[in-house]
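Model: Ready when you are.
Researcher: Fold this.
Model:
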Amino acid sequence: MATITVLATGLMLAVTLGDAEAKVPKTGTFPLKCADNVGSFYNPVATGGLNIASGQTNCNALGSATVQSITVVVGPSVFAPNCIALATLPDADSYAISSSGFFTYASANLEQCFFDKDGLAATTFAFCGGAAGDPVTSKVTGTYSITGGNINGNVVSGGAGTVNSSVNHCAIGTAPYGNSVKTTIVGTIVY
């Protein structure tokens, strides 16, 4: 009986010491930057109106991560005739994920503006057609809000910032599947 008591006491002491050494959860607001995000997306004509994008990035919170988003066109831009307004698909948040964890985010006010081979505002939607006014590149700008996540055991509760993308629609010669995208995400992440 004395041996069992000594063993039980030893186990309880080991558990107590283990708990004392447990990592303190990360809390607060920290800078977030995901740079050199390169990827591609499908044209919405081929996907029932969905812009499905994916890529690889390097985030200070996650290390090397895969990113994915689904956006929809919500109307023409109020700023210029060569632009459209985009938003994250409802109930399908975008995400960044790595072996360290993930965070999800949504955008409600993205704007995509199209430019021809000379860098002028595109006037047609005949992508990569070669005629004056045919879109060859575009820029996507807007903001995002972090909606959740878990990184290295720390619960992600919020954050916000900006998204900036440069798109080459003719990377492989023709649209819709020749799209190449480079994106930078900058802002904050809250644990």
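Researcher: Now this one.
Model:
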Amino acid sequence: MMLKKQFGGVAPEIEGLEDIAGSSYRTRVIRVDNLKFSILNRQERIFTIKKAGIISEINIISPNTDINNKNYKIRLVADDEPIYHDSWDNFETRNMHEADMTAFDNTNEGKYVLIFQDIVFENSCYLEIYESYATFDFINVKYHEKIGLL
């Protein structure tokens, strides 16, 4: 997995093996903190995974103290096919109609939350953020990297 260096350090990976559909998987957790950037009229790739795997969950969290912190678009692509490609506001509108995506304003914790789950890919997966005016608290990715057959 590759992460942009400008976003700070990567938390230690949590490794474990799981048996999913007859293959062995290693669990990886990546957390990138203090994402303070604006992406105006360009795109920024946040991560790229270049192996088969399953993303268990992606959490994109920003403080709701500034309405601009939900003013961004994302593109999540698996095996060269866009899985999600929209703005935070549109994801919030679609929220009640999709099982593997949620976007909401968590007023109790003061956070804008965007979550994607259960993304399966054979060759590669990546996440891009673009047209952003947001400051992010963190992006957390938990995925299961395929390491071979049992």
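Researcher: Key takeaway?
Model: The chain has one domain: 2-149.
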